[in-house]
Amino acid sequence: MLSTTSSTVEMVTHGKLQINPDHNVEDKNLGRLGCFGWLLVLISCLFVVATFPLTIFMCIRIVNEYERAVIFRLGRILDRKAKGPGLFFVLPCTDNFIKVDLRTVSFNIPPQEILTKDSVTVSVDGVVYFRIHCPISSVANVSDANSSTRLLAQTTLRNVLGTKNLSELLSDREGISLSMQDALDEATHLWGIKVERVEIKDVKLPLQLQRAMAAEAEASREARAKIIAAEGEMNASRALKEASLVISESPSALQLRYLQTLNNIAAEKNSTIIFPLPIDILQNFMQRK
After folding, report:
1. What are the tens digits of pLDDT across the range 91-118?
2. Is 10:23 a contact under the CB 8 Å cutoff?
3. Which domains occur in the chain, in start order?
4. Where in the cell does this protein reside (predicted)?
5. If residue 41 lies in a helix (H) or strand (E), which one and from where to where?
6. Distance CA 161, CA 124 (A)
């Protein structure tokens, strides 16, 4: 039978510390301080009672609504759960506690030089939003949860973007953000951290690549403009052909079009315009005479 306390295996499940069921140590032995530990606790209680008016300020602590306190009594987490919000009681000689902030925290990922899948070097930065959902795990399983999450976010950014092409990096930022969020959330789950959101802020390309992409985009726009102009010319020629067929079927329509054109010219500029009369009109007058 194992007798050392170092053989006790603890697991994090649903935000609480539990014991591995495969371990040989009995559950009733957990949390026991031993005879010497209880003696120290008893002495601390007697000291508090003896100096009651003065030690009351040392024993009562307050945590805010967005905070929790993880209390350690002789190195062991008290009651396997965090205290708060509000008032809680600690013994001045045997207890110490750590405050944990449960609010959402954001931090910037510094610009990272990344080599994409198609061998293009880009500089990418981002922002991560996370919060602590299990105070016990964030204190017992990792030494510095915030710093560890920051370092992990940098390495995750490199690993995820290293599997993407430049076109995917520029067009599928939302998918990349979701991939990073899933990877970070899975890695930080044992630390009691929930990654709520990851965003890619800026992608900086090399200057030569920017010029090449600008030239490619300009050439593409010019080609599209030429295609649109050619389609317009073709549609206009078809319309003119149909109009000529209509006018050829009715000679009077040509005369009306002629008079309409003269009317438009006279409306634009107030000047004297000399124009020849159509021969057909003059023939009608000559036949009457």
Report:
1. 887 888 899 999 999 999 999 888 888 8
2. no
3. 31-101 (no CATH), 105-205 (3.30.479.30), 210-288 (no CATH)
4. Membrane
5. helix 34-50
6. 9
